[in-house]
Write a structure and sequence with these properties.
Elements lengths: L4 E7 H9 L12 E5 L4 E7 H18 L9 H12 L4
Antiparallel strand pairs: 1-3, 2-3
Helix pairs in contact: 2-3
Length: 91
């Protein structure tokens, strides 16, 4: 079950964030993950189910470190991170 692939609809910006922060490594594609663009803004992220929880954990740390403003409200990056955390929840 952990090796099963899941497909999650995400923005191009979200995938760029995951790559920029090292949570998805370009060298691991296409063996562990692939992005299939639907249009210039959105697409499908295909990855192994086992990858979703560690990525969500790392995103939670990112949210705490740099995703909140001085009033502890999500900033622009924080809103992107929160959306990714929600989308990567795979029951």
């Amino acid at each position: 079950m952990n090796n099963a692939e899941v497909s999650i609809k995400v923005s191009v910006e979200a995938v760029e964030h995951l790559v920029k922060t090292g949570l998805l490594l370009p060298a691991d594609s296409p063996a562990l993950w692939q992005f299939e663009a639907v249009n210039a803004e959105m697409g499908w992220l295909h990855l192994r189910r086992a990858m979703t929880e560690p990525i969500r954990d790392a995103l939670t740390v990112q949210l705490a470190e740099r995703g909140l403003d001085e009033a502890y409200e999500p900033n622009a990056e924080g809103r992107l991170i929160e959306d990714l955390i929600d989308r990567l929840f795979v029951p």
